[in-house]
Amino acid sequence: MKTEENGFTIGLCTGGRWDLRISGRCRSITEGCLFILIPQHFTETISRSDDFSARTLTASLEAILEHPSPVDINIINITFLHPVIRLDPDRAAGLLEYYEFIGKHTGRSDNIYDKELRKTLLYALMLEISDIYNDISGDRSEVAKPRQEQLTDDFFKLLTAHYRSEHNVAFYAGQLHRTPKYFSEAVRRISGRSVSDWIATMLLSDSKLLLQTTDRTILEISEELGFSSPSVFVQFFRHHTGTTPLQYRKQL
Question: Which CATH superfamily is domain 147-250 in?
Answer without folding.
Answer: Homeodomain-like (1.10.10.60)
